Amino acid sequence: MTFEDFVELSDSMAARLFTMASHAKTQKNVVVAASLVEGGLISKFFLEKPKKIRAELRKSTFTDAMKWKKVIFIAAGTGLAPFRAFIQEKVFLMKQKSEGKEVKVPIITLFFGCKH
Q1: Which of 20, 9, 35 is nearest to 89 (CA)?
Q2: Contact between 80 and 41 (Cβ < 8 Å)
Q3: Is the pLDDT assigned to residue 14 strictly greater than 50?
Q4: In angstroms, what CA-CA distances link 51 with 3, 68, 82, 97?
Q5: Contact (CB, 8 A) for 6 and 14
Q6: Cα dist from 80 to 13, 104, 111, whole Å
Q7: How many angstroms separate the CA atoms of 41 and 47, rounded?
Q8: Most confidently modeled of 10-24, 25-39, 67-81, 98-112?
Q9: Strand (E) or helix (H) holding 90
Q10: CA-closest candidate to residue 36, choices 49, 24, 26
Q11: What does the pLDDT read at residue 5?
Q12: Which residues touch 34 (CB under 8 Å, ≥6 apart)?
């Protein structure tokens, strides 16, 4: 094995944390939302469309926001990814309710802010 082969096989990037942007009950595939930034290391990686990505899933630190009557989400610097999954869950709950099932569907208000 040459040095070039070793470098190509090794993962030189440090681990990155991303938030899943998909709801487990409505999508069979995991969706990760990320911003593509010109010249960014991860952006370049994703733009090259890798065939394999090693991922480690962790338990969510979000509380169950859907148990409340009204929910306010504030996406100020965190991005919309975690809130996308909650909105998908609301759509899922609304569909269940329209089918006659007794489920609570919260009112969701989402505020989004960004630097630019």
Answers
A1: 20
A2: no
A3: yes
A4: 22, 40, 25, 40
A5: no
A6: 24, 23, 10
A7: 10
A8: 98-112
A9: helix 81-98
A10: 49
A11: 46
A12: 18, 42, 43, 46
Q: How many helices (H) and strands (E) does the chain have?
A: 3, 2
State the pTM of this model: 0.62
Structure tokens at 6: 């070793």
Helix (H, G, I), strand (E, B) or coil at 107: strand
DSSP for 65-84? GGGSSEEEEEEESS-SHHHH
Joined together, the tokens standing for residue 18 give 């991303």
- How far from each other are the two terminal CA atoms of the chain, in whole angstroms? 48
Cβ(73)–Cβ(83) below 8 Å: yes
Query: Quick one: tokens of 1?
Result: 């094995």
Tell me which residue of 76, 27, 30, 26 sits closest to 57, measured CA to CA.
30
Spatial contact of 71 and 109, defined as CB atoms under 8 Å apart: yes
DSSP 15: P
Tell me the per-residue pLDDT of 47-78, one tens digit each, with 9 for 90 and over: 887 777 777 777 766 667 888 899 998 887 66
